[in-house]
Amino acid sequence: MKRVRLVFSGSGGQGVITAAIILAEAAVIVEGLNATQSQSYGAAARGGATRTDIIISEEEINFPGVTSPNILVCLTQEAYSQYASIIRPGGLLLTDSRSVKTAKKTDAKHIELPLYDTVMERIGKPIVYNITMLGALIGITSIVRPESVLEILKERIPPDFLAMNQRALDLGLVLGAQYRYTI
């Protein structure tokens, strides 16, 4: 991996920005890579459109914005409709099969996973949906090591919620591992 450009998109309250921050911190603090993370919100913080750009690189990063991501994650139909066209040819498009019905033809590897349904079935609390998504992405791409994310979770998550977040990460890793993709 020289440089990976990612966009996580969904709606406010799904935790896509938190997941992006955790990923960027795992890359920088634990793995010694360079990373940037920026975000934008729709009209309403909760329920409005949300997008976060992440760049992870072995080299210096001169511009933090992502115009053509290698990896695009869409957790809502609105996000998919708005951002599916920006993915870099040959990139990876990850969607939640419950919330996104794909219609556009993209020149990308498309992986649909039952993220939300699996979280609700196995954990029962949607608050860790974002961590399951992050685990799935890592399971698919190995962009950072799962242990690196866990180390950041230990710093950011109250101790009472750490076990649930670790289960969510592990759940995502298992979901994603069946779809290996090299960036």
Using brief descriptors, characterize the structure shown.
Pyruvate-ferredoxin Oxidoreductase, domain 3; 183 residues; 6-stranded mixed sheet; globular; 6 strands; single chain; alpha/beta
Description:
The chain is of the alpha/beta class and 183 residues long. The protein has one domain (3-177): Pyruvate-ferredoxin oxidoreductase, PFOR, domain III (Pyruvate-ferredoxin Oxidoreductase, domain 3, 3-Layer(aba) Sandwich). It has six helices and six strands; from the N terminus they run E-H-E-E-E-H-E-E-H-H-H-H. The chain has helices at 16-30, 77-83, 115-122, 129-141, 146-156, 159-177; strands spanning 3-11, 34-41, 49-57, 71-74, 91-96, 108-113. A six-stranded mixed sheet has the order 2-3-1-4-5-6, with helices on both faces. A hairpin with a 7-residue loop joins strand 2 (34-41) and strand 3. Helix 1 (16-30) packs across helix 5 (146-156) and helix 4 (129-141) packs across helix 6. The protein is globular. It starts with a strand and ends in a 6-residue tail after the last helix. The model has no long low-confidence stretch (mean pLDDT 93).
Terminal Cα span: 7 Å
Percent helix? 25-40%
State which percent range the strand residues make up.
Answer: 15-25%
Question: Spans with pLDDT under 50 lasting ≥5 residues?
Answer: none
CATH superfamily: Pyruvate-ferredoxin oxidoreductase, PFOR, domain III
Q: Total number of helical segments?
A: 6
Shape: globular
- Structure classification: alpha/beta
The string of secondary-structure elements, in order, is EHEEEHEEHHHH
What does the largest sheet look like?
Answer: 6 strands, mixed
Round the mean pLDDT to the nearest integer and report it: 93
Number of strands: 6
Q: So what's the CATH class?
A: Alpha Beta
CATH topology: Pyruvate-ferredoxin Oxidoreductase, domain 3
